[in-house]
Design a protein that fits this description.
The chain is of the alpha+beta class. The protein has helices spanning 44-57, 111-123, and strands at 32-36, 40-43, 63-66, 72-76, 89-97, 102-107, 129-133. The strands form two sheets. A four-stranded antiparallel sheet has the order 3-6-1-7, covered by helices on one side. It has a three-stranded antiparallel sheet with strand order 2-5-4. α1 (44-57) runs antiparallel to α2 (111-123). The longest helix has 14 residues, at 44-57. Keywords: Ribonucleoprotein, Ribosomal protein, RNA-binding, rRNA-binding, tRNA-binding. It comes from Paracoccus marinaquae.
Length: 137
């Protein structure tokens, strides 16, 4: 699963996801892409599940690019633990996804295979998405 090799600090504040994506909102590599339409945190497990669903439907033809990276540590305390005693340990890694952000790009497959693969990948994600194609630009 994806996670940073090293970080400057171990834990982070939660923060909020405000506004539109200020980068990564255009097709750069492939012909078809999955674009987020709402703000949400996407975990490393969800990214991996979507990637597997996409590549499996494409039957390992073509190419897949993952355009988001889980760099936000999300901490949690164990169940049935009293309040206090500091912040919990890092539980998983997540990526902050702004509306308009391209999350996956694919190329090298036909139109219908590409759209179906991205639809299957979108089902694994907690974000409402749109499928965009190069000819739409």
């Amino acid at each position: 699963m994806l996670q940073p090799k090293r970080t400057k600090f171990r834990k982070q504040h939660k923060g909020r996801i405000h506004g539109q994506a200020k980068g990564g909102f255009e097709l750069n590599f492939g012909s078809y892409a999955l674009k987020a339409t709402e703000p949400e945190r996407v975990t490393a497990r969800q990214i991996e599940a979507a990637r597997r669903a996409i590549t499996r439907h494409m039957k390992r033809q073509g190419r897949v690019w993952i355009r988001i990276f889980p760099d936000v540590p999300v901490s949690s305390k164990p169940t049935e633990v009293r309040m206090g005693k500091g912040k919990g340990s890092v539980d998983f890694w997540a990526a902050r996804v702004h509306p308009g952000r391209i999350m996956f790009e694919i190329d090298g497959v036909s139109d219908e295979i590409a759209r179906e693969a991205l639809r299957l990948g979108a089902q694994k994600l907690p974000v409402l998405t749109r499928i965009v194609a190069r000819e739409d630009w």
